[in-house]
Amino acid sequence: MIMKKIFTSGILLMLFALTGCVKNTLTTYTDAPKVEWDAASWNANAVGVTYPFLTRIPIANAATPTSQPTLTRTSGTFQLRVNLVGAQKTTDTQFTYTVSASESTAVAGKHYTAFSGTGTIPANSSFGFVNVAVLDPGATSGTVDLVLQLTDNATYGASVNYAKVGLRIAQN
Q1: What is the enclosing helix (H) or strand (E) of 3?
Q2: Which of 51, 142, 154, 172 could form a disulfide with 164 if both were Cys (CB 3.0 to 4.6 A apart)?
Q3: What sign for the dihedral angle of Cα 27, 42, 52, 49?
């Protein structure tokens, strides 16, 4: 009987000694704020490049599903979301981007409306948007590629891994 009490007490003591509270540590992002293409962070890179080529109109905060419409010369205007990685700002802030001419075959004014090169992340927000206006030059065969690249500016750096996104626009 005494051994049973000692054994039970020993088990209870071990349970208390081996369990306890795990201290939760708060992890805070402290690097300089960056911007990234939302679609680049969700979709797999294309073969031979370090960014995805989208063939469908992307959605925000998810990989682009096959249920989305195909990106064609008749797609019209759609939005690409830009994510802020870092603390939100209390005022509207600008990010910058450019068309990567060396990687694009699409022509401004023929396949898409030229871009301003700047976008806005509203105050107290983690997202901004770039409007992409696809133009219809008439039916031809094949595809054209439009590669957009976020660039560093005084407010934001471009994310190393998600600074580019490609849009493959079907022309048929």
Answers
A1: helix 2-18
A2: 51
A3: positive
The length of the chain in residues reads 172
CB-based contacts of 85: which residues, under 8 Å, 6+ apart?
Answer: 29, 33, 34, 35, 36, 159
Sketch out the chain's domains with CATH numbers: 33-170 (2.60.40.2030)
Contact 56, 168 (CB under 8 A): no
The CA distances from residue 140 to 73, 92, 136, 144, 171, in Å, are 10, 41, 10, 10, 5
Answer for the pair 136, 70: CB distance below 8 angstroms, yes or no.
no
Half-sphere exposure of 54 (CA within 13 A, CB side): 30
pTM here is: 0.82
Please report which helix (H) or strand (E) contains residue 167, including its range. strand 164-170
Tokens for 168?
Answer: 């493959």
pLDDT (tens digit, 9 = 90+) per residue, 128-172? 999 999 999 999 999 999 999 999 999 999 999 999 999 999 999
Which residues, 6 or more positions from 63, have their beta carbon under 8 angstroms from its beta carbon?
42, 43
